[in-house]
Structures are given as C-alpha cells and as structure tokens.
Design brief:
Elements: H1 21-25, H2 27-31, H3 43-72, H4 76-100, H5 105-109, H6 124-133, H7 148-157, H8 163-175, H9 194-205, H10 211-242, H11 254-260, H12 267-271
Length: 276
C-alpha cells in the first residue's frame, strides 16, 4: 500500500539507486545457496542447520583472531568481551541442535545417501577454531589437502601461537614463571603442564592481586564450557538420528564423537579446581 502521508520520516520505498537490506546482506547468494539433492522435505532443514553453523563459526574466527591480537598487546578488556561473545555464539550453536533433533531417523534416511562422503567432520572452519584455541592435531590436516587455499590457511595458523599460548605469555609474566618449550609447540595439541598448573593456582589463590588475568581465565573456562556442551549435543543428536552407524565421512560416528568429549582445550584451568 502506498504511503498516504509521505514526509521526512517516511521509509524509503524505491531502491533503484540506493542500497537495500538485501543488497547490504548479499541475501540473493545466501538464500540461493540451499540446493537439496533429493525430494526429501527434511533435507532443507539439514542444509540450513549446517550452513548457519558455518556462518556462526565464521564469526567465531573473526572474534578469536582479534581477541588474540588484543592479548598480544596486553589489551585485556576488549579481548574478554570478544571471548564472551564466542561463548554466546556456541550457546546459539547449542540451541540449533534442538531444531535438528525434530528430524526423525526415518526422515533422515530419505536423503542420507545423497550426502555421499561429505561430513561436518570435514569443516575447515571448525578445525581452524580448534587450532586457534590450541588443539592442534596434524592428523586432521590431510582431509583438506584437496583444497590448497584451505590447507594453507590451516598451515599459516600453525606458524603462530595459539590464543591459549598468548594467554600463557601473560601468565608467565605475572607469576615470573618460565615455561618449557613444549608448552609453546605450535603443531601439537596442548597437554596439561605442571608448571602452567602451578602458575594458574597462584593466580587463583590470590585473584585480587591479578584480577584481570583471573577474570580472563574464567572467560576461557566459560568458552570451553559452551564448546563442550556443543560437542555433547552433537553426540546425542547423532545417536538419536542414526544410532551407531558409521558417519558419512568414514568415522565411527557416535564412538568417534564420544572420544572428542575427552579433549580439553585448557586442561590446567579445569584441573586446578580440585586442588584449591
């Protein structure tokens, strides 16, 4: 309906020369990116679930990268704000599993064969998030060899310190502790280290003395808490829909996903709670 009372507060109605909402968000390619390979009704749900997850992960990488830069520059407050945002992104990703779980096993089998060997296990963005946080498993690189630009992106990440290692630099300075070179390996997963544990215990025993570092540590715990919940919800969703079948990407499915629940990104921050 035409505006019968046009004035200075009336909304713009013509976009032949101006940028519209759809133009700004590039909605045409986004909304045209859902291309089901079957006639199954629920394949659209499956595609949109995973596409939106990748968009949220894109934002995670944006936030984590900038947070790491802030931490290198000892700018704690903006970094902590970004880490809080990443935790909330994983809260959104957790809620998305509730939508996918409305799909029954019978509905999934109608299009599962159309996935071929594709699997969320192959997400390079998920792998990059893990690498940035410190879980650097080189065995996971091979599946990205067919895309040189993605493989190179992961390789470049392996050349620099993880976000957690940058935090450990701050911890080292605050506690006058020198950590061994193994703590700063850039191409292996971070494992619990006694010296790192002792340094964190020192911070937690007197939080007022190093409040910013103490608060930063809790931001990391909060982030990993939501990350763990996402992994757990992934396992239960897969078990609910396909049981113990092998994954489309060749993994053992639920068995593999359960093994990932044991992975700790910041082990010292969890282990110190038992000794305070």
């Amino acid at each position: 309906m035409a505006d019968t009372n046009p004035g200075k507060d009336s909304a713009t109605a013509s976009f032949s020369k101006d940028m519209s909402y759809a133009d700004y968000l590039s909605l045409d390619p986004i909304l045209g990116a859902q291309r089901p390979k079957s006639a199954a009704h629920d394949e659209m749900l499956f595609i949109i679930q995973h596409q939106t997850s990748e968009l949220w992960m894109r934002l995670c990488l944006h936030e984590l990268s900038t947070a790491r830069t802030h931490l290198i520059n000892q700018e704690m407050e903006p970094a902590m704000k970004m880490l809080t945002r990443v935790a909330r992104i994983f809260e959104q990703l957790n809620n998305a599993w509730d939508v996918l779980r409305t799909m029954t096993p019978s509905e999934y089998t109608q299009f599962r064969n159309n996935l071929g060997t594709s699997s969320g296990f192959q997400s390079h963005q998920y792998r990059l998030i893990e690498f940035m946080l410190g879980n650097r498993n080189l065995a996971m690189m091979k599946m990205h060899e067919h895309r040189s630009e993605l493989y190179n992106m992961l390789e470049q990440e392996l050349q620099i310190k993880s976000l957690y290692q940058v935090v450990l630099d701050l911890l080292s300075k605050a506690t006058n502790t020198i950590f061994s070179a193994t703590v700063y390996s850039t191409d292996t997963p971070h494992l619990a280290n006694d010296a790192v544990m002792s340094a964190w215990v020192e911070i937690y025993q007197d939080p007022q003395q190093n409040w910013a570092l103490y608060e930063l540590a809790e931001k990391l715990v909060d982030l990993e808490d939501y990350f763990r919940r996402w992994r757990f919800n992934h396992v239960t969703t897969v078990e609910r829909i396909i049981g113990f079948k092998r994954g489309t990407g060749g993994t053992s499915g639920v068995k593999y996903l359960r093994s990932m629940l044991e992975v700790e990104l910041f082990p010292e921050l969890w282990n110190l709670r038992g000794i305070l």
